[in-house]
Amino acid sequence: MINIVLVEPEIPGNTGSIGRTALALGARLHLIHPLGFDLNEKAVRRAGLDYWKHVELIEHRDYWSFLESEKPQHLFFFSVHTNQTVFEAEFTKDCYLVFGKESTGLPKDLCDPRKTYKLPILSPHIRSLNLASAVTAIGYLALNKIKDCK
Q1: 4, 30 Cβ separation under 8 angstroms
Q2: What DSSP element (H or E) covers 98?
Q3: Which residues, including other chains, have CB under 8 Å from residue 123's CB and lie 6 or more apart?
Q4: Which of 1, 48, 57, 101 has the fewest CB atoms in 10 Å of its CB?
Q5: What CATH number has the domain bearing residue 135?
Q6: Is residue 14 included in any domain, yes or no?
Q7: What's the first-to-final CA gap in the chain, in angstroms?
Q8: pLDDT in tens, 95-106
Q9: Which residues contact residue 89 at a Cβ distance below 8 angstroms, ignoring those fewer than 6 apart?
């Protein structure tokens, strides 16, 4: 199972869309507080449509609580501040795909530089992708790379 981890997400529509992607991937969605919105917010439900109630959602008080409760063995971090592309990642079953908040990304002190990747952006006119778009692209790439995937 893939786990999608959002550290302090700020935009409810992105989180709703990512929840829908998580459900499509058969993934669990972990939300690390503080959140920039209330989970009851209409924008989350609207983006997640009627699928939101089926999302396997786990909330964590903070990043350290997440580590303590999940004890993840296979963490993959995503940031524009690395030279390694997502195509170099060796995804495994039960991996955790960790993404930062929309405005600032992941704090560098949370990332293992050996396990931090980015989606390549070839245009000089774009700094980054929308978080929901990045999660979808990386989630499906991870699913494709995991052995014995059906």
Answers
A1: yes
A2: strand 96-99
A3: none
A4: 1
A5: 3.40.1280.10
A6: yes
A7: 12
A8: 999 999 999 999
A9: 76, 115, 117, 142, 145
